[in-house]
Structure formats: C-alpha cells, structure tokens
Design goal:
678 residues; mainly beta; seven-stranded mixed beta sheet; 4 helices; 45 strands; 40% strand; disordered N terminus
C-alpha cells in the first residue's frame, strides 16, 4: 500500500506514536490497534487498523474518531476480515461506526492482519500528533459462536511534520553536517549560545529517538542511518529515525481531581495533551506524568493512632465503615507497657459477695490499686471488710465481701412511716435520715431531733422524729406605739387581753377617746403578731381651752367623765397689768390645797404669774360627760388686750388621770399613764 511521506521517510518504518498510555497486551490477548504514521501537511496518508491474536471474530462494531485536522476520504475493508461482510458507510464523519458481520466463519478464515484501511487528508496547517481513536462498546465484538470477545484496543495517530528527522539544519539533506551541528549544540548546553558555537538547529529534527531530549544517542542513530545508506536496512543497523516531540504546541484537556471512596477510585487533578497524547500535572505541560500516576486507589482509611483493649491493639477505620479494623495483634509488653501502642498491662480483679456471685470486675493497671465497689446488703448482717487487699495488684484476684451480724435500726416519722432502715454493727452508731424540703412537717410544729439516741446501738431499734409546737411573741401597743405588754403564745392558741388605759389622749389633736377594743383578733395565733389598742374619738372637748376678749381671758382645764384625778401642776405667766378675778376648782373643797398650803387661796395679789398645784392621796372621781377641773378668769387694767401672746402657759404642766377603779396612789406607777403637756 502506498503512503505519502517526505522522500527520506519512504525508507522508514511506521513511527510509534501512541495516542493514549496503554499497557502491553499479553501474547494470547486479542488486540486491535491503529498504525502510527507520519505525513507532511496538505498531503494524503494511509493508516491500517490491524488485528492480532484473532480468536475467530464473527462480528464487530468499531467506533473511530479522529482529529479535526484530518479528513477521512476513503475506508476499505482488510484481508483479515475477508470472510465477514463489511457495511460501507454512506458518508464519513467523526466519530463513525464501522461494522462487520457473518453467517459463519471457518477455521481457515481466521487470520491476523489488516481489517480496515483509512485514507486521510492532512490539513495544510496541521502540526504534531493527530490522534485517531479506536473504541468499542462491550458486547459489540463476538466470536463465531456468538460469545462476547473482550479486545485490547490501541488507538493510532498521524504525525504531521514539515521537517526530515535528522535534518538538524533544515536544508532538506541528511549528512554529517547535521551530526556536527548537533554535537556543537550539545556542548553549548543545548542552546544557541552567542559566546560558543552559536548553532541554530531544528530541535524536533535532531531528536530522532523520540525521547524529547537531544543527546549523543541521537548522533549515534543518525551516523548509523547514514552508514546504512540513509535507509532502514534490516541487514544493517536497521535504524528508525523518529520525529522529535520537543516543543509540542499542547492542546490541554483538564480533568478535575476527585476523592477516592471506600469502593470507587478517585484521581488527582491532571491535564492531557491531545497533540502529543501525554499527561501532565500542570496546565503548562512542564511536569509529565503517567496516566497510572493520576489514580487514587479506592479503599478504606484507617487512623494513625492505635486503639486497644486489655489483650490487643489495632487501628480503627476513619471512613464510613466504622466496624473495620486493621493491624490487630496481641500486645507485646515490655516492663508492663506494650512496646507497640503504649497500652498499660492490665490485671483483672473480681469482687464477689458472700455466696460467690460476681459484684463487679475491674481491669487495673499492673501495680495499681483496685477500687472496691459498694458491697450488697444482706438482711440482718452488715458489711465488715474485703478478704483480700486490693492495693498494688500484680496478679489476677478474686475478692470476697465479709459480713457480721448486726442490729436493725429504723428512723421513722411520728406516724410510724419508716424513713430509713439499716443494719448497724453492735456498739456502733446509726446514720440518721437526712430530711429534705420535700418532707412534710405538721402545721405549727418544728422538728426537734429524735426521740432516742442513735449512737452505740446494742439492739434492734426504732427511732422516731420529735416534734414540738411553735411559740410566737404577741406584742400589745398603744396607738402611738407605746408597748403595753408582750405574751408568748403556742401555735393555734389565744392571746390573753392585757390591762390597758381606758382613756387615750392624742396630743397631736389635743383630743381624748375611750378604749374600744383591739385592731386584730386575739384568737388562733399562728405567727408573731403586733396588736394595737383602739380608742373611740368621742371626747371632742380639748383638755385645755383659752378664750379671750378685749380685756379679759378665761382658761379652762377639762377631764373626761368617769376618771380619777390625782394631781395637777399648772401655771401661767403674763405681761402687763393682769389680775386673776377668780379660780373655780371643781373639786371637793376638802381634798385640795394650793401652792400656799391653804385650803383657800387669795388671788388678789397674783401678778405676773400663777402656779397651781393640786395633789390627792386618793383620786377624786369626776362625773359627767366632761368635767371642768379648773376655770381661771383674768382681767386687765384699762384697755390692754388679753391675747395668748400676753398670757402664756408655763412650759411644764402635768395632769395625772386614771381610768382605773382604784384609789391607791401607790399603784399609779404601774397602772396609770402620765399624760404630759408641752
């Protein structure tokens, strides 16, 4: 078959230019692959698709797609599938399907070789690798027995180049001049160096082994190719000069990174060039990688740190499969510490009751102390001790609870409700019940300890709560706050009415009133209480009244009815010429005496002041609604006016009244209020 290439390349075999990284197939594996060919731009090139290790294909569908710089102009079936019927496409496009089928395939018809020949026109502006991709869908290739055949597929490509491999100086001739220039280019550091040989070469033409690097290997291959007559000679060195791939104008396809899961592979972020079919870790194509390097294998993830129990250590899964572990093995203890995971060696300590039933099991670090649990209760017995020490444990232990006979002690409420019960060793103390806010106390009572001691118990005992009645202070007061008496009264009992004055004088209003009762009940006392005496406001007459005219004045002192009068200390002073005309004392004449000590007082010489004092060992009872005790009349000389400014009371005046039915003067200090007038 004829291929259109550069003249020197007519001597070369097809150039290997894989479009995708693929694994080498085994000899027995059926393989369908496309050739890798070289062409000038604006020329036609033919590519064969061949089969190797044909198992007896009875039908096939191949999907072929190709670079946009290629135009398919012809597709012809090959000899390897001559026993199969080929469906000729009505027109060519990319991608497209080529199909073969058969009625039957004889043994003699099974052969390897070309199954399809494609002829492309290479675009005028094409450069580099132009991939021709070949694929199929599972089940679309089958043998003569109609069994699916799995086929290893290798795509092909056309490499469009405008230079001759080895022609480093681009003069369309391959000779030792090219070797000399390549050698100088290498010693100049593989660059055009003005301070050195300053050689300019076609780097792609100089890279004849396709290694993407120019070195002495390329010089040796060119020398051998020239020595063989500038051809690939099977009888000589049989050198193939390949087109270089230095400076590929990458067309990158980006694949984003994806995390692997426990069951599905992921991949790193990478780029693939559709021109040179290489894979890169960066978009600029500086760091080439293999496709296999991009794979993040599926699998479970496990913690770096160790997990452990008493006997083993392992690593827990950190993925969603939390029940998986790896690297599980027994501890290797060195000085009682695992040399792998640092777990402490543990010793089992079993605590049992008196009958040998397990109470608790503990795993204790070697040489550490076990903490004994609370021993179970046994009716009529009390726990005494554990039979084995649990300190500095270095071997497996069974520890048994030991009991002794005890006394039953119950703490109970006053109604017999058991609050707490326990067994107490002979001679030891019981622990009393601790009351809380939820425990009810009978109304009007407080708890006052227990009815018997609970230390040194020597027999079965019931201990009851003591309750005592609450007591309250009841205070009795006059309306002005003066204390009359205090009493202590038990909860729910009645207070007793104290003795108090039957008259109350209000110096703020200068009025008197008679006792009318108490401001609150004295019955059923249930807390501290203050009780005030109440008085009727029924004495509207002031105690002292002063009336004046132009030249006279009258001063009267009143007392309420039904009281006893004991003493008067009363006086006046004045300015100007004022005379006392009369002094009416509304008291039995044989019971009073004046300041002169006489029964009768001479008022004719009383100028500027008057002081009247009256005392009586036995009080005089005053009758009537209001009684005038003292009535003093004044007159002035001439036209002098009498006013309260002229006629003034002494600063200290006192009157002693008592509503008590007593005539014993000695009792006054305890039963009679003293009413002071200021």
């Amino acid at each position: 078959m004829k291929k259109t290439v550069l003249p020197v390349l007519l001597l070369c075999v097809c150039i290997l230019c894989s479009c995708f990284a693929v694994a080498v197939s085994a000899e027995s594996e059926c393989t369908i692959r496309g050739e890798n060919v070289v062409s000038e731009p604006n020329a036609e090139v033919t590519m064969d698709i061949v089969i190797e290790n044909n198992p007896g294909i009875g039908g096939a569908e191949l999907i072929v797609s190709y670079d946009e710089k290629l135009t398919l102009i012809k597709a012809e079936p090959g000899a390897a599938f001559s026993a199969l019927t080929f469906a000729t496409p009505s027109y060519y496009r990319s991608p497209m399907i080529f199909a073969w089928d058969s009625l039957n395939v004889a043994n003699k018809d099974i052969q390897d070789g070309t199954i399809l020949t494609l002829t492309f026109h290479v675009a005028e502006d094409a450069a580099g690798d132009l991939p021709v991709n070949i694929s199929y869908e599972s089940g679309d290739i089958y043998d003569r027995d109609l069994n699916p055949v799995e086929v290893h597929v290798e795509s092909g490509c056309t490499t469009a180049i405008s230079y001759m491999p080895g022609d480093a100086d681009d003069n369309k001739r391959l000779n030792t001049m090219d070797i000399t220039k390549i050698r100088r280019y290498i010693v100049d550091g593989r660059k055009t160096d003005p301070e050195g040989y300053n050689v300019v070469i076609n780097e792609n033409a100089a890279d004849v082994d396709g290694s993407s690097k120019i070195n002495t290997m390329d010089i040796t291959l060119i020398r051998r190719y020239i020595a063989d007559g500038k051809m690939t000679d099977p009888n000589g060195y049989n050198v193939v000069l390949r087109p270089g791939k230095i400076g590929c104008n990458h067309n990158m396809v980006h694949t984003p990174g994806k995390d692997a899961t426990c069951t599905e592979d992921g991949n790193i972020e990478y780029w693939m060039c559709t021109h040179c079919n290489k894979y890169f870790a960066d978009a600029e194509g500086k760091y080439e990688i293999l496709l296999s390097n991009t794979v993040i294998n599926a699998g479970h993830t496990f913690a770096e740190e160790w997990s452990s129990d008493e006997t083993s250590h392992w690593r827990d899964a950190t993925c969603e499969h939390k029940d998986l572990v790896v690297d599980m093995e027994d501890h290797t203890f060195v000085n009682h510490v695992c040399a792998v995971c640092d777990a402490e060696e543990k010793v089992k300590v079993t605590f049992v009751d008196a009958e040998g039933a397990t109470i608790e099991e503990q795993l204790v670090a070697y040489g550490a102390d076990a903490v004994a649990p609370e021993a179970p209760e046994i009716l009529g017995y009390v726990f005494d001790h554990w039979d084995v020490s649990t300190q500095n444990v270095t071997q497996e232990l069974t520890v048994t609870a030991q009991y002794v006979k005890g006394h039953e002690v119950y703490f109970a409420d006053s109604d017999g409700t058991v609050l707490k019960g326990m067994i107490v060793k002979d001679g030891e103390s019981a622990i009393p019940y601790e009351f809380t806010a939820a425990d009810v106390i009978p109304e009007g009572y407080v708890r006052d300890g227990w009815d018997k001691p609970y230390d040194k118990i020597t027999e079965d005992t019931i201990i009851y709560v003591n309750y005592v009645k609450k007591s309250y202070t009841v205070s009795f007061y006059m309306p002005d706050g003066a204390l009359i008496a205090t009493q202590t009264v038990e909860h729910g009992s009645d207070a007793q009415e104290p003795a108090c004055s039957e008259i109350y004088f209000d110096w703020n209003t200068l009025k008197m009133g008679g006792f009318s009762g108490w401001d609150s009940s004295l019955k059923d006392i249930k807390g501290p209480k203050s009780i005030y005496a109440q008085y009727k406001n029924d004495f509207n007459q002031p105690v002292i009244s002063i009336s004046t005219t132009k030249n006279s004045a009258s001063i009267k002192m009143y007392a309420p009815a039904s009281c006893y009068l004991y003493a008067i200390d009363f006086g006046f002073n004045w300015t100007g010429n004022i005379s006392i005309v009369s002094c009416d004392k509304n008291i039995a004449s044989n019971l009073y005496k004046g300041n002169d000590g006489a029964s009768n007082i001479d008022f004719s010489n009383k100028y500027n002041n008057f002081h009247y004092t009256w005392t009586n060992a036995a009080g005089v009872k005053l009758e009537g609604a209001y009684t005038t005790v003292l009535d003093i009349q004044f007159v002035t000389d001439g036209d002098q006016a009498v006013s309260q400014d002229v006629l003034k009371l002494f600063e200290d005046c006192s009157i002693i009244f008592s509503m008590e039915r007593t005539s014993n003067m000695d009792e006054l200090e305890t039963v009679t209020p003293i009413i002071m007038m200021k």
